[in-house]
């Protein structure tokens, strides 16, 4: 079996497999090529699904869109990586077995989802969008990509609803945006994010969506005034900030611990009673990568105990920047260091780690590194301080990530050696949604009763009865 040669990168990735077999980029990092092990998983899924679908009397592609196809993918991953996923052989052939083992659905609150308007054409954003392709050209990958403007049509609202709500078990989503030259010129500006939120909530007659506001405190008074507008007019639910991505005209990023730059913004957030500060950390963006390191969070959290600091991507540096040998032993760039720093301040209880992109990258690349990352976060921050996020729909429907986390286990030998906790159903329920519900004042029991009755659930029921058709498509960037 030979490894696939990665000669260039491209946007969009459709796979027969329900679980991606290569890393997808969300425009925030250069995706690594498919690994030998991922190629092996892909080959096993193809071979096994061909045999099993023939036995069941359906074609292979249709089989792979079933719960049995999803189970078969995790069986293949166990065969290649070792037993990290709780899945039985019988689940691949019998849908009833999948449902019996699945039990009641957890409440799923995805705190990082993305929608990108196809009409967006701000020059500052377009330059950022093309930056990934320019880097690819500099590295001798596919030069044609540097002149390809690409299309965001697939990330439109209708497709977002299908991928996030019809093809996955997500109950509530928080919509976010990559940065732009100014907060009001982001890829999806706060005005548009809140419009999308309100449109979906009106459609469903219940709260299915929340929306970020965006801050760039280097703009000083202008940013503070825009925060007032976002709170009063748009009624944003949280703040998103990118400490590594400065606004237009600034040479580098900023720190949340900077009393002159960041603290006026944090004071304003507190005054406006919008207390969740969602910060991109890890997956470096901007001209100076170091400003994406999470170490500044500790001082800010200490000085603003009434605010909650949500660390998006868990500060993970990224799969393309990892020393795999060291990571397999438990040394994960930036995240491990941040966990050690947190151990020194055990009284800090207002920092929350979020899994968007990080879990999705690691679980399909090297599950053992994923196990270390989860274990270290849980030891340092506790099971009440880990949040579910997927960065979808860059990665397509969130369902494969939901299934992967539902089945994922930290092996007993790692638990014994490093004192990591077991990933119990109770712990996973907290991560999947209960922790975020507390932060955003969502009444979970009321929501459990409300969601099945709303309009979107009726659409989903009809969609499932007609026969669901998941796309198995990711909308980000991959090597090919």
Low-confidence stretches: 1-7, 118-155
Q: Name the helicity range.
A: 40-55%
- Specify the biggest β-sheet: 8 strands, parallel
Shape: globular
- The topology string of helices and strands comes to EHHHHHEHHEHEHEHEHEHHEHHEHHHHHE
Number of helices: 20
Rg over C-alpha atoms, rounded to the nearest angstrom: 21 Å
Class from secondary-structure proportions: alpha/beta
Compact summary:
With 480 residues, this protein is of the alpha/beta class. The chain has helices spanning 36-56, 60-64, 67-81, 90-93, 95-102, 123-138, 157-166, 190-204, 221-234, 263-271, 297-303, 324-328, 335-343, 358-365, 367-381, 399-407, 412-418, 425-439, 444-450, 455-466, and strands at residues 9-14, 109-114, 172-176, 209-215, 238-242, 276-280, 308-312, 351-354, 386-387, 473-479. The strands form 2 sheets. The protein has an 8-stranded parallel beta sheet with strand order 2-3-4-5-6-7-8-9, with helices on both faces.
